[in-house]
Amino acid sequence: MKAKFFAVFRAAFLMAGLLVPLAASAQWPPPPMATPNDQRNALNHMRTQLNLFQNATRTASNFGAQGAGNLDGQFQETRNVYHGFLQTLTPQQRDRGANSLAELDSGFDILGEAFTYYQNDLAAGRPANAALRDLCKLLSQGMRMWSQEFNKTCSALRVGLG
Amino acid sequence: MGLCGCATTKLPGVTEYNKVAGEASKEVHRALAALDKIKAATPTPSKRVVSNFSDEVTRLQVQSVTIRARAQTIQARGDAYFRDWSENLALQKDAAVRERAEHYRPELERTFADIKSASSRAGAAFRPFLEAMVRLRAELESKPNQRMSLFEIDLVRAARENGQAVLKELAFIQSDLTGASAMLAGKAAPAL
Q1: CATH code at B137?
Q2: Which end of chain B is more exposed for a tag (fewer CB within 10 A), N or C?
Q3: CA A87: distance to chain centroid?
Q4: Which pLDDT tens digit goes with each residue over A11-63?
């Protein structure tokens, strides 16, 4: 019984050994390197999203209590689009711009803290309209600064220029 | 969120961080001045004083994004952050700068380590400073034209102390960066 169990076990082990290379070869090939055109498209997408975000900061107060939620949604979307943009950079661009790209990431983290401050403001009894007004102002101006740095970084890294 | 490795700057990274730290220092001074106006208006700051203070807090939140992002990145990237500076110095067109960067390498590395520590301390002090400022604004706006509570007075004190700590660290950073610039420009002997 014991010998039979080990025989089955050994057979399963061998099968697994045979299947591993097959499984490995069935993996997706590495994604193709993004072209300068891909980078330009990603850059345009990012700029469009940054404009949408600025619009959201202008209109948030029209949506009352939902305004902050809408802004948060646009903020997350902007971050997602930025991460998509990063995927189009070449390893050389990522390496050369490592510091500035890391700072742009940190900038997002810091701007994101504005939502925590907003929630804390409400919890501390600050009038909701004043808290939302400041949230919009902070995000609008902060994201404008972020955009300037983003543009500077893209120029220095010659994004989309090949 | 400044850019390191800019080919047009004579001392990439060093000059730019000095500027960012200087601007941050001005903003903290400005915020502390607004805080002093609240303190001077104790026990019942007027609506106008509170409104001005509120605007200054928002301004501080916006204007400090760059320096906070810088401090956070230096922490996250550690020595790799300054390796980038060193590599850029080694690529300088000015042979004399390249030579001095090589000659003063140990001193520069020590300076970069000091800047890293001061940036970390500045970031650590900035958070409670901003938190106290933001909380004080919320407290003052939620109870307009009322006597300041002990809690609010304590927030004023905490904000002031942390703001001073931020200024101290920013001054350290600026002093180190100025020293590094002078060293690379051949204007001063390194402090050993």
Answers
A1: 1.20.120
A2: C
A3: 10
A4: 554 444 444 444 445 566 666 788 999 999 999 999 999 999 999 999 999 99
Q: What is the ipTM of this complex?
A: 0.84
Gyration radius from chain A CA atoms: 24
CB A100 within 8 A of CB B12: no
**Could you count the other beta carbons within 10 Å of the beta carbon of residue B145?**
10
Distance CA B3, CA A156 (A): 8
Backbone angles phi, psi at A40, to 5 degrees: -65, -40
| Sign of the CA dihedral running B180, B184, B188, B191 | positive
User: Which DSSP string corresponds to B53-118?
Assistant: HHHHHHHHHHHTHHHHHHHHHHHHHTHHHHHHHHHHHHT-S-HHHHHHHHHTHHHHHHHHHHHHHH
Furthest-apart CA atoms within chain A: distance in Å:
78
How far is A14 from chain B, CA to nearest CA, in Å? Answer: 45
Q: How many domains does chain B have?
A: 1
pTM: 0.82
A-chain residues near B135 (CB < 8 A): 120, 124
Interface of B with A (CB under 8 A): 1-6, 13, 54, 57-58, 61-62, 65-66, 68-70, 72-73, 76-77, 80-81, 84, 134-135, 137-139, 141-143
CATH for A34-157 (1.20.120, 3.30.1370, 1.20.1300, 3.30.230): 1.20.120
Whole-number Å distance between alpha carbons of A66 and A89 = 36
Q: Do B2 and A100 touch (CB under 8 A)?
A: yes
Q: Which of A127, A145, A156 sits opposite B66 (nearest CB)?
A: A145
Closest CA to A100 of A42, A140, A51, A157: A157
**What type of residue sits at position A36?**
P
Rounded CA gap, A32 and A79, in Å? 23
- Please give the structure tokens belonging to residue B66: 């760059």
